[in-house]
Amino acid sequence: MIIFDNVWFKYGDRDYVLKNINITIKEGEIVCILGDNGAGKTTLLKHINGLLKPSKGEVYVDKLNTKETSVSDLAKKVALVFQYPERMFFTESVWKEVEFALANFGFEEDIRVHRIRKVLNMFWLWEYRDRSPFTLSGGEQRRLAIAIALAWDPKYVVLDEPTAGQDGFQREILIDIIRNIVYREKTIILATHDIEFVFELPECRIIVLNKGEIIYDGSSVELFNNYPELLIEAGLEPPSLSKLIQTLRKEGKYVIFKNYDDAVDKIYNLIKGG
Amino acid sequence: MSVISRFSKVFLFEEKDALLFRLDPRIKLIKSIILMVIVFFIQDPIKIGILMATLLVEFKILGKVLFKVLRSILYLTPILILIIVANYLATYDIIDTLSPLLRFLLFVMAVDLFFFTTSPDDFSLTLEALRLPMTISLSFSLALRFIPTLSMELNDIIEAQISRGLQLDKGNILTRIRNYIPLLIPLIVLSIKRSIEVAEALEIRGLRPGVKRTSYKTLVLSGVDYAYIIISLIIIIAIYLLELKHLISLAKL
Q1: What is the CATH number of the domain that holds A53?
Q2: Structural domain boundaries enclosing A214
Q3: Of A2, A261, B15, B37, which is most buried, counting CB atoms within 10 Å of its CB?
Q4: What DSSP state is assigned to residue A61?
Q5: Chain centre distance of CA B117
Q6: Looking at CA atoms only, how far is residue B1 from chain A in angstroms?
């Protein structure tokens, strides 16, 4: 369980970037943090593995206070994948890149081999194991970064802007990967401003950040059905299907949808009906 | 980690609303060079001390950069200690030890005078005014321009590697040096990629060596610039010509 208890944060003596953040994240949840540039998403994520410590308030990861725990101890529980993870590669092969983290965390040789084999297969990277990570395509590099993070079997996986610079096909793969990670009983926290991506992940809990404050915390169905104006307030554009449904409602056709496919179905039926 | 970011902060240019920032960079460069040269002609530690005091006052009042200058000197502590120890062992004389130390500090302050108060834009204009070949002046100003970017990127890389378990301050000296490889390689790769991108961007915008370029901003000397350099020269020459014996006898009268 991750608990943000009254967290305030500022860089140096500038204004507060995070204001009065209270979140409790339970195991097995997918949490999407939405907000436009500068809303404080990355700052919030960096608090989870202790890279940043709150100026006021506390953050607890499994009852460990991040102020009293080192980043390397927290990193074992919380894998943080950065916005441009491909920028951290430095070894000559994909295999060694995965092994580096495992060696840092002190895993034995046979466990390492087993784990590397497992994650590389899981992310369709096995055939690239001897290639330099620099020669992989953007999407493959992003997959490798997530594979590296999963290799040491962390309880929480934190993804910062996973869709940044990814094409449509890679985004589909990412959705699969995220569902796959949750299926393995892990908790996922991801920050993004890619609304359409979140719209395709209806099972996630959404937290909307606006200028460092939480303005919405709840289910995605509720947000897209009833509060699309909150997204606009946070500087984001509601998904196109959600906008279409809002327009239909103004015309007197009241539609409630559960997820992406449901919305498509209902709109299709409306058109067919009339 | 914090040491690296604090260290790179010294080299970050911060624009301040102060006279030194508004002066023509060529004037500041001339004063800087005069100071660097005069360091080799003044031996008396008292004279150097007086000259340093005038510079410190200048940094404080005209430039608002005194704190930054002192911090840049603080980072040189190891070299300062080396100068003191080496000179003292060679001469066994306090005055002879003090003189090279103060002269070194004055030299550093002369460099700071130009670099801490001149924006990267002004810097490249100065290089052009010196009639340096465009390739050299451009490389210089690009290098300066990218220090803040690189320092931010280095910070990102450090955070990413720490997040996958890298511990920088673990092990003996050899392991500690090896710990920096995961930071240096991505930084070098990024810099090379960036340099290719910059080259392409410059070419797209029509940059070709050998073609005459005009400037958007041209340097023009104003009355303040002349006043500043003349007053500075008078102070420096006065201190240089100052005979301390005369001063003492004057005081006795």
Answers
A1: 3.40.50.300
A2: 2-220
A3: A2
A4: E
A5: 9
A6: 11
Most confident of A60-69, A177-186, B132-141, B234-243: A60-69
pLDDT band for position B57 (cuts 50, 70, 90): very high
| Residue A193: inside a domain | yes
- Which region holds residue A73: left if phi is over 0, alpha if psi is between -120 and 50, else beta? alpha
A227 in B contact zone (CB under 8 Å): no
Contact residues for A261 (Cβ-Cβ < 8 A; gap 6+): none
Indicate whether A265 belongs to any domain. no
A101 touches chain B (CB under 8 A): yes
A72 to chain B: closest CA residue: B165
Average pLDDT, chain A: 88
The residues in B 135-164 lying below 8 A from A, measured between CB atoms, are: 153, 156-157, 159-164
Decide if A18 is inside a domain: yes
Instruction: Quote the CA–CA distance of B171 and B173 in Å, as a whole number.
Output: 7
| Residue owning tokens 């509060």 | A227
**Contact assessment for residue B89 and residue B47, using Cβ atoms and an 8 Å cutoff:** no
Q: Which chain A residues have a beta carbon less than 8 Å from that of B189?
A: 89-90, 134
B142 token code pair: 């690009």
Q: Which chain B residues in 173-202 lie under 8 Å from chain A, judged by CB atoms?
A: 181-182, 185-186, 189-190
Q: pLDDT tens digits, residue range A178-222?
A: 888 877 788 999 999 888 888 888 888 999 999 999 999 998 888
**What pLDDT, on a 0 to 100 scale, did the predictor assign at position B6?**
57
Judged against a pLDDT cut of 70, whether residue B215 lies above it is answered with yes
Supply the pLDDT for residue B1: 44
**B49 vs B61: CA distance, rounded Å:** 18
Inform me whether the pLDDT recorded for B217 exceeds 60: yes
Which residues from B are below 8 Å from A101, CB to CB? 164-165
A87/B167 touch (CB, cutoff 8 Å), yes or no: no
Instruction: Determine the residue type at A190.
Output: L
Backbone phi, psi, residue A52, to 5°: -120, 140
Domain membership of residue A272 (yes or no) is: no
pLDDT at A229 over 80: yes
pLDDT at A132: 92
Q: What's the predicted TM-score (pTM) here?
A: 0.75
> For testing the chain B interface, which of A104, A136, A150, A158 should be mutated: the one with the most B CBs within 10 Å?
A104
Contact B141, B124 (CB under 8 A): yes
A89 touching B, CB under 8 A?
A: yes
**Full strand arrangement of the beta sheet holding A78-81:** A78-81, A156-160, A187-192, A30-34, A205-210, A213-219
Number of folded domains in chain A?
1
User: Measured between CA atoms, how close is B41 to chain A, in angstroms?
Assistant: 44
Residue B178 pLDDT > 50 = yes
- Cα–Cα–Cα angle for B7, B10, B14, nearest 5°? 145
